[in-house]
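thought: fold this chain, then report.
action: predict
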Amino acid sequence: MNKLREKIERSLEEYSAASFIAGVLCAVLIAAAALLLYFELPVSRSPSRPDSLAAMKKISEAEWLIRHKYLEEMDESVQTDDMIRGLVAGLDDKYAAYYTKEEYEEIKKEHAGMIKGIGVQLAQDAETGELLIVYVMEDSPAEKAGVLEKDRILEINGQDMTGKSSLDASDLIRAAEGPITLKLYREGEEDPIELTMEKEDIKGNVVFGTMLEGDIGYIAITSFNGLTSEQFAENYDKLQEEGMQALVIDLRDNLGGLVSACCDTASQILPEGPIVFEQDRLGKERHQDCAGETPIDIPLVLLVNRYTASASEIFTGAVRDYGLATIVGTRTYGKGVEQNTYVLSDGSALKLTTTVYYTPNHEDLNGVGIVPDEMVVLTEDSETDVQLDKAMEILQEQLEERAA
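observation:
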């Protein structure tokens, strides 16, 4: 009997110990769950936050009313996208944006230098005002359809192009959905001809170079994308081979683009050192540097205006801070912040302002811009490009001083 009692008592003691341990574990698990609920679930959040229970309840109520009371059918996908656009709009940041998956795919193509077009370069005849095709890209939709250089565009998709600029025509082609029909005048043809073609993804030219009088090179950069650095190198090398003694880089109307493309391009002419400093919301700073392998050693002028922005201002600020160029034109835009794009789970994306940038001399350009060394205003009624004329004058003087 005593042995039985002892066995029962030992069993009770073991059970009590196990129960105590189990109780402790349960308490720990409950505490952990409570902490998870507090920190991770909407119940713990301020009612003013978009992801709080109060906000979710409000959204649910509004959605129920729309679903059951609104007269028309609704597109749920569009509404979801617009809800996210609303979140972004609440930031009051003109540079932030939301892109659907389809929109983001197009953005990536643009950043890579791909545009949907027909593969022609246009110019406006100075005497007649007519739109002239000055270049047809090899294997492009235009070439396949039979478009030739020196053809003159009379109509695009039935729209009269009389008095329209090359920019007007490019915008019309870019915005058009479906095939493009050009009505053309071709020398030697009695009647106008019509050619129809489908737009395709083609590599766009964003850098244009030529040699001006006095062995002064000219390079215009219209955007910084995945092709800019390569195209700049091609034009820069070609001008050097032709005996370039001075250079004009035209950044007018260049609204920016990829900071990486800007730095890759600037590295071809800058000395060793930082190109740009970038600082995030926590004050953490990093910088992108130039190895300084091929610093420019000829007189240089940069042309800028109020539409020289973002990456173009990074380029201009770096060249100016290293004392490599004279800046000519008007005050630049003043966009001193950078954006990063984050891809969401369904392939859509958010572009958010994440850093402020500074020039190599640590100057903040945001809302200020860069004031040129030579302020020259180009008005609409100017008969010549007075800004380019001033650049040429400065470079010719510098070349004469070098020769003296």
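thought: worth noting. The chain has a mean pLDDT of 88.
final: tokens above.
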